[in-house]
Design goal:
This protein is mainly α. It has one domain (about 5-80). The protein is about 75% helix and about 0% strand.
Length: about 80
């Protein structure tokens, strides 16, 4: 993945409230992988698309095969929302 395009995606998602499907995945990521991969982050009650992308990025970088697959699902949902 091109890091510039991912950064552009985060810029487009900044300030845009995540739709229900993205928000569900965002909260599910904290429930499933919070202590493993998201220990340095605090969940938002109403995440933005950009926040969901940051979480997906953390899952990809800090996680294992399972979290990376979940990160792909989150990123795809974010891309579809934009």
């Amino acid at each position: 993945m091109d890091p510039r395009s991912f950064e552009q995606l985060k810029e487009r998602g900044a300030g845009r409230v995540a739709p229900d499907g993205v928000a569900f995945l965002y909260h599910q990521a904290f429930q499933k992988f919070g202590s493993q991969s998201l220990w340095s982050r605090q969940p938002s009650a109403s995440p933005t698309i950009a926040q969901a992308l940051v979480v997906a990025e953390c899952l990809r970088r800090e996680g294992d095969q399972i979290t990376r697959a979940f990160a792909v699902q989150m990123e795809e949902a974010c891309r579809a929302a934009l």
